[in-house]
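User:
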Amino acid sequence: MNNRHVALWIDRAEAKIFHLGEGDFETLAVHAPHQHVSHRGEPRAHGSSHPAEDQHFFHATAEALKSAEEILVVGPGKAKLEFIKHVHRHDHALVDKIVGVETVDHPTEGQLAAFARSYFRKVDVMNGTAPIR
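Assistant: Predicted structure:
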């Protein structure tokens, strides 16, 4: 498993972690606690779980990322930003590993891997760590 470049796609229901290799990738999923439903049968308007459950979900996601060297955080909504806030408050070891945050809707795994590889190539060029070809 490659830990140099890792992309995290996160929403309220799950986090998908992509360990990117040159031509392949491995994924790991972290699932949020069960979604809570209001009395009318509709999901809660301000998130799918209670704050304590959100923190547990974010911490489990952070634990799954601890061996990563560089992390790109993506997702369709506010969960990615809430995860970043959680990292700054509780999982300080990841703060300097996060190289970017981008809004990405619901791509296929292949589309997300391609997007992340392109992003990391740009980061590597900016940092002077791109491989010589």
